[in-house]
Design a protein that fits this description.
mainly alpha
Length: 248
């Protein structure tokens, strides 16, 4: 039961980010800040958290095969989100020719694809938090704290980007809030043990999706607003949060 509680609490951090967004009055500037904030955190999540865990999951493979499998699954993750562009409202990164309505649609697109990728990621994290907690409560609590810390800025990014569609924004946050709990609940109810290869495959797919979001969605937004102080403050704040997570 402790495992389910810790996985649930880690998801509640998304609600905290949502509430922070609602309390901010200068929405347009805060969106720029939130996107810049989430960019370094997402890269840190990919290269310092998910990638080492993914490599470890495929330890039974020889190095060449391991690299090939991870690369292939990562590309599938990238392709999956690219494929979703067919079903998601049209958007463009050419902000010079974009009116306010088109830009709002583009920001919603960023929030939506981020939600899709993070839902899968949080399912995996929920499984990890649950299994860690039932074996070692202290380690489970530390993992819950670290996950919650990086969930808050990502929640701020999603909430800010989808601000103009309040119902869908709330639905996305609630979906992410329960996603980690669902991961723990699946293990609790089924009593199954997920093999390292299956877990590694899911992580590699998640890496691909997060790379797509970081490079093809967030980075163009940052470049377009590079001269604004909110961009600089967001990037610096993201780096500070990364340093805090490293030392926890």
């Amino acid at each position: 039961m402790n495992g389910l509680i810790t996985s649930l609490i880690s998801g509640i951090s998304f609600v905290i980010g949502f509430i922070i967004t609602k309390l901010i009055k200068q929405k347009e500037k805060f969106v720029i800040f939130a996107i810049s904030l989430s960019f370094p955190i997402m890269l840190s999540l990919i290269f310092f958290d998910l990638l080492p865990e993914c490599i470890e999951s495929f330890n039974s493979f020889i190095p060449f095969k391991r690299t090939l499998v991870i690369l292939l699954l990562t590309l599938i993750g990238i392709f999956f989100l690219k494929l979703l562009d067919i079903f998601i409202p049209h958007h463009s990164h050419n902000h010079r020719t974009k009116n306010a309505k088109e830009h709002t649609s583009h920001l919603f697109h960023i929030g939506l694809v981020t939600t899709i990728a993070l839902f899968l990621h949080n399912l995996i994290e929920g499984i990890a938090i649950y299994t860690t907690t039932i074996n070692d409560l202290k380690a489970g609590l530390l993992m819950m704290g670290a996950v919650s810390l990086h969930n808050i800025p990502l929640s701020i990014e999603i909430s800010s980007a989808t601000e103009n569609n309040k119902k869908k924004s709330l639905f996305m946050i609630l979906l992410l809030t329960i996603s980690a709990f669902l991961g723990g609940l699946i293990i609790y109810l089924s009593h199954i043990t997920i093999s390292p290869i299956v877990l590694g495959s899911l992580i590699a797919l998640t890496i691909g999706m997060l790379i797509y979001i970081s490079i093809l969605e967030l980075f163009p937004e940052i470049l377009n607003h590079w001269n604004l102080k909110e961009t600089k403050y967001g990037l610096i704040s993201g780096l500070i949060i990364i340093l805090i997570m490293i030392f926890i």
